[in-house]
Amino acid sequence: MRIDETHRKWFIGSLVGLAVAVVVYVPYSRSSPQGAGGGTTMGLIYGSVAFAFMIFAGLLGARKKVPIWRLGRAQAWMRGHLWLGFVSFPLIVLHSGFHFGVGLTKALMWLFAVVFVSGIVGAVLQHFMPRITTQRIPLETIYEQIGRVRLQLMEEAISLVDEAYALLHGDVSQANEQQRAASASAGTMGGLTVASGMQVDEEASAELKQFFQGEIQPFLAQSGSHGHVLADRNRAQAMFRQLRTLLPPNLHSTVDDLENICEEKREIDQQARYHRVLHGWLLVHIPASYALLILGAVHAVMALRY
Amino acid sequence: MNPAAKLVELTIDGTAVSVPQGTTIFDAARTHGIPIPTLCHQQNENPVGVCRVCVVDIGQRVYAASCIRQAEQGMTVKTNTAPVVGVRHTLVELLMSDHPSPCARQQHSGDCELERLAEQAGIQQPRFARRTTPRGHDDSSLAIAVDHEACILCDRCIRGCDDIRNNWVLARRGKGYQAGIAFDNNLPMGGSSCVSCGECMVSCPTGALTNRSAVGTKLEGGALDIGALLGLPIFKNVSGTFLELNSHAIVERKFRAGEIICREGDFGATAFYLVDGKVEVYLSSPIAHVKTEGSAKGFLSKLRSMLQSREQDERTEESSRVSIPIDAPVDLPYDHPIAELGPGDLFGEMTCMSYYPRSATVRAKTDCTMLEMLRNVLDIMQRNKTFREQLDRTYRQRALDSHLRSVPVLASLTPDFIDHLRNRVELLRFTPGQVICTQGEPADSFYLVRLGFVKVAQSRPGGELVLAYLARGSYFAEMSLLTGTPHMATCSALDHVEVVRVPGEDFQVMLDRFPEIRRKLEEAAAEHMEQNRQRVTKVADVTVDQFLNQGLMEAQSLLILDLDRCTRCDQCVRACADAHDGVSRLIRDGLRFDRYLVATSCRQCRDPLCMVGCPVGSIRRRNTLEVIIEDWCIGCGQCANNCPYGNINMHPFPVELDDPAYPGRRMAGVKVKATSCDLCLDHAEPSCVYACPHDAAHRVNPLEFFGGLLKRQTVAKSGK
């Protein structure tokens, strides 16, 4: 979620709440004979409030499971998740009197730190990454469709190359209109017939075949770029420039199309990377949060009972 | 030969011949077995001598065209000398230099007369340069293909059309190198008054006019004897040659009582003419619309989609129609959508001519015989005067009444006035693109759409603005007649259209006699004018190309996703699917405008292309311009295919259907209904927007939402 001026109320509210907690904490810690701790009344209050905030933050996942239930707008839940989750960490620190403790409490504090930091990272990523994705990937597709789009690009490239082979071997029937027109104007006598302008060009055919099978096909076939030469835009441009010099002018439009296909493939690879970055932190945040809630509950029961 | 006729004697290639006075040299030679090649002449037509291929040497300064020069007493004719053959060779070579060899006729049957002559003369590659400017093709006729490139301007087709058939459709156009044949006032053949008699085609010596027998697929069924077919009253005056050429395109089908002839929603390409017996026409789809609502109110409400009829759920501005328009001479009553057709009725015209899905299910009520035909045959028949007269008569007698009453504003017409109109109205047919009435011209008639779709467009500086698409049951030109002004828009046929023309004077009589109808028409006209004014104002205000190109100006409500906020979590899609029984009505994909993604979800377009082609006219626009799908949707999916943005979905519902294997038994089945975004009307906010955790999804009016942005872009553009 983008954190902008629309978060002003939540920001001020959280800040005021935190300030109040800190202001209360100072006399409380000084007046406590054994210092501030989770076992004192104030400590328990801090802990309970923080745990309630944590539970609320954790309920966002459950809220998302029932998106059409009118339980409040999802964005309100998200704002609550962000700000209450954010405030709960300092509250827990106040609850513990700035001690990490031992055993379960220590584990809890570390777990909470992981949740807190991963949450901050997630919030930062969600603030910046959507804009970056929008700007850098104009041909964005649905993430789940990336594999399918990749296959379509491959099919398109194969069909283009087949047409080009046909053209190079004088089989006009398989050439597309653009290629026929280009061929006719590229060297036939007065543009009388397309076929008369086409001659078998074994050398060009071999070059195209080698480039397609050696570079384009492997690049399109793999799901990520993995350091492929065509994954680098500058190097790819240079390679396609060179290919154009080796092929007759009537095939330049085909090379342009193949270059565009590779560009689109680079974009979907980049989109997949961005998507993983944008959502990858959840792999840490969500399990750690569940663990935190469960262990937090265990901690609360044990602390209150014993 | 007339025995009293005076004979003349002459010599042809050394043979003395005697022929009646007035006989041409060509005929004299022919009757004595001396062949003279020709292209522009054939026996059943008056000779014109334009191709000059039949030239012969008669001992004069110039060679004579034997087809028009009459034999004279003592004449010596040489048909085969080297100079004569040389001249013919040059003529044929010149004609071949512009001829697309092999032409369509040569390819199909190998009997192009020009190419045969060229072959006999040993001409392979003409020495002369080919023309560089193409003369074009005309594929507008369903029966005849016109290849102007292959035309040698022999005029045989013109004489066939004018002198033999007396149709007077064909003529010459242009001069010199620009000359060619033309239909009416140089109209496309399909849009001309050509009756598809086929005379021009059989007269043509080359592939310039050929039979389009490839139209459609071969029909299965009983082969028909052409003689028997021509014996049927509806085929009176239809060209036998043509029927023979298209014998695969019309078959006789026999159905036993209870058999299904065609089903609603199926795609087809044929029309049926009922020769004898009776059929039932009905809708098997539930007459209900898709309603999405919460099963339990409150914050835990769960939405569910269900089918509800008009009685169960009366929506605002629900159509007050009492009948459902179908592709047949009758409309179906809304309450009991079943009707009967009898001998002489034709149904499936829209499916046949424009490939719309079948609008209703047809079942044989008694044993019946039908003629099933493809569009080339139907086209020929519809151009045939006898058949048109029969259709016209049937319409006036049986359908005019229900058609007029099916239009809500005309529902109060009395039987005596309908009787008055019965012989006054005219049934007119228009081909795709043909103009019915033109903006700025005086209005003299009121029109009701009987078949097909009419486009209403206004010509404005900068282009054409489409105001509406009118389907069967709609009417037009009433505004101009009410206000006495010229037509405010141009109405043209979007596909094969039939309209009922009510003369202006009868329309005025109707207004005078029925003040209630006048009031309703005036109210509707005022409403339309206001809507048109609003649309024109909105269009005039928008100048940003991308906004216009993406059709955003046409939208009334857009689902947009702010891509700077959207984390691509798909909660919106999930919410939409949850709200509609797992069938999402939005896809998080589409075109971008600025930093917004215009998601694939109904835009409530002002120019709703989805409405074009609905075979039963069940998708329409409310006065609020919101798209509504009426209860009698048959689930054919035509609107979903037509929506340029992919915003209409087909929602399946379990229903009970007739078991075709066991008549009388029911079986479980699925019927689909078209649905588009309903904005989750039961709730204050659409589910997709409500469920977006990132404040990225919004439902907006594009002109209001993008107003500021558009102004900035326009200023920036004009600043450059």
Description:
The complex is a heterodimer of chains A (306) and B (720). With 306 residues, chain A is mainly α. Chain A has two domains: 149 residues, no CATH class; 136 residues, no CATH class. Chain A has ten helices and no strands. In chain A, helix 2 runs antiparallel to helix 3. Chain A is elongated and about 95 Å long. In chain A, 29% of the residues are buried. About 7% of the residues of chain A have low confidence. Chain B has 720 residues and is an alpha+beta fold. Chain B has four domains: 102 residues, Ubiquitin-like (UB roll), CATH 3.10.20.740; 99 residues, Alpha-Beta Plaits (2-Layer Sandwich), CATH 3.30.70; 130 residues, Jelly Rolls; 175 residues, no CATH class. Helices cover 26% and strands 23% of the residues of chain B. A four-stranded antiparallel sheet of chain B has the order 11-22-13-20. Chain B has a four-stranded antiparallel sheet with strand order 12-21-14-19, with no helix packed on it. In chain B, a hairpin with a 7-residue loop joins strand 36 and strand 37. In chain B, helix 2 packs across helix 4 and helix 14 packs across helix 15. Chain B starts with 6 loop residues before the first strand and ends with a helix. Chains A and B meet through helix 3, helix 4 and helix 9 of A and helix 17 of B.
Report the sheet with the most strands of chain A, covering strand number, pairing sense and barrel closure.
Answer: none
Give the total of domains of chain A: 2
The overall number of domains of chain B is 4
Level of helix content of chain B? 25-40%
Largest sheet of chain B, described in full?
A: 4 strands, antiparallel
Mean pLDDT level of chain A: 85
Low-confidence stretches of chain A: 180-200
Distance between the termini of chain B: 86 Å
How many beta strands in the DSSP annotation of chain A? 0
Globally, the shape of chain B reads: elongated
Largest interface: A-B, 30 and 35 residues
Number of helices of chain B: 21
Low-confidence stretches of chain B: none
Structural class of chain A: mainly alpha
Straight-line distance between termini of chain A = 41 Å
- Counted by DSSP, the helix tally of chain A is 10
Instruction: Give the H and E element order of chain A.
Output: HHHHHHHHHH
Category by helix and strand content of chain B: alpha+beta
Q: Helix content range of the residues of chain A, please?
A: over 70%
Radius of gyration of chain A (CA) equals 31 Å
Quaternary organisation of the protein chains = heterodimer
